[in-house]
From TrEMBL:
Name of the protein in its database record: Malectin-like domain-containing protein
Signal peptide range in chain numbering: 1-23
Keywords: ATP-binding, Glycoprotein, Kinase, Membrane, Nucleotide-binding, Serine/threonine-protein kinase, Signal, Transferase, Transmembrane, Transmembrane helix
Membrane protein topology class: Single-pass type I membrane protein
Residue ranges occupied by any Malectin-like domain in the UniProt entry: 34-384
GO-annotated molecular function: ATP binding; protein serine/threonine kinase activity; transmembrane receptor protein tyrosine kinase activity
Keyword Transmembrane helix: yes
UniProt entry tagged with the keyword Secreted: no
InterPro entries given in the database record: ANXUR1/2-like (IPR045272), Malectin-like_Carb-bd_dom (IPR024788)
Listed transmembrane segments: 412-430
Principal location class: membrane
Amino acid sequence: MATTKILSLYHISLLSLIAAAAAASFSPTDHFLVNCGSSAAQTLDADHRVFAGDDPRFLASTQTLQLQSLDPPSPLYRTARAFTHPAHYVFPIRDRGVHHLVRLHFHPLRDNRCDLSEAEFHVIANGFLLLRNFRPSTAASSVVIKEFAIPVDSGELKITFLPSDKSGFAFVNAIEVITAPIDLIADVAQLVDAEKNERIHGLLRNGFETVHRVNVGGFKVTPFNDSLWRTWITDDEFFNSIEGSETVHFGGIIKYRKGGLSREVGPDNVYNTARVIRSKVSLIPKVNLTWSFQIEKGYSHMVRMHFCDIASVSTYMLYFNVYVNGNLAYENLDLSQSTDAILASPFYADFVVDGGSLAVSVGPSNMSWPRAVDAILNGIEIWKLNNTMGSFDGEVCADSVWRSWRTGHTSVVLPLIAAIFLLLSASVFLQRRRNASASTGWARLPVDVSESNLKGGNQLSSIK
Ligand SMILES: *[C@@H]1O[C@H](CO)[C@@H](O)[C@H](O)[C@H]1NC(C)=O
Ligand SMILES: *[C@@H]1O[C@H](CO)[C@@H](O)[C@H](O)[C@H]1NC(C)=O
Ligand SMILES: *[C@@H]1O[C@H](CO)[C@@H](O)[C@H](O)[C@H]1NC(C)=O
Ligand SMILES: *[C@@H]1O[C@H](CO)[C@@H](O)[C@H](O)[C@H]1NC(C)=O
């Protein structure tokens, strides 16, 4: 009895040692975790991370409300900060020129001063329009986490919350800002559609919004088990092949190679499970494994397929084809060659596709072997790319959302200015009657002001 206890204690400390070692391997230069609306110095979230309370150094706004409720089970969601006016969180950035992860947590908690489920607002970060007319889910128990990776060139990251006219207020429960590991996003990807399959460059100029993050053939991976604190859900709702699939679980060690991708690109728990096609007889199965997704039309998306050969008995036995929307994206993909002939070593392939419906498949190629593994997939990630206006949420840029807010809210001042101009021009008119040589330049001004005032008020709704 006593021995078991000691053993399990030993086990626990060993586990926490391993966890500590895993955490220590990635130490982002910029790392801000804020539990918004909380005045407590520290809050431990469900994944054992320490979030700081709201710090006036970061929150540059005075017209805010601190909301609190004891209902939500996670301490992170028991407080929120609400804004009736535009408010900014400004984070000093030391790691310039690289992407930063921005996670925004929303949980419409109940407070008698305002009903957060009624909130509707816009969120802007360093010129990128992240969310527009956003309404966090009205289901009181739900938590919405929006994750972006934004290129930050300047010394600060400014996140702006802008209430929409409809609701008049915005809120947020928690904010994470983390330097993205340098190997998380590559500048190149394969553009695949019916006409072409070509290498494209310049992805590092884009912002990314996470749309799907899937652990193929395995369990849900929580932030606790991911060194970048991501969540990977199971592939159940996306996998739609009836036959030919076998799930595999690998008990060995995932070999992150020097010069290969790091654990921050994908954690062990994603690479140690997969779905495979296996040939048990001398015949190679004539099947594909296919996963389907709905992604928003009008935006390019980046699809990352994660591979790790945890199923073959030896190197150079696995060759397969990869299809994106039925188009051949990779023929005879050879994971051994891609991973310096090391089994159980991870590799990924990035594809850029148009929005709409998306299907990714893997299947045997004409180099596949009988009595071997003939296709594999371990994980899938899908990101939306910002459009040419720098927006993730509509054909409108951050500037015009911001301008229309200001126009809408200076409507008391503008008519006043217009009235003054009217008075002025009236006096000019009167003077002109007295003095025939006077200029008429003033007369159009009041008209311009009222016109722009009218347009500004409708800008958002008319674009939408
Ligand atoms: C983390 O991963 C381990 C090993 O796969 C698993 O047993 C454990 O339940 C996971 N913990 C959480 C919080 O997901
Ligand atoms: C696998 O999918 C590709 C692309 O849709 C198709 O050309 C091929 O015939 C499929 N293979 C099988 C065995 O169904
Ligand atoms: C392999 O398949 C391709 C088409 O996918 C075909 O052009 C090629 O001839 C095949 N190679 C062999 C050796 O059968
Ligand atoms: C995303 O925004 C960046 C910066 O404004 C821009 O360079 C890039 O072209 C945009 N992406 C797309 C796909 O339009």
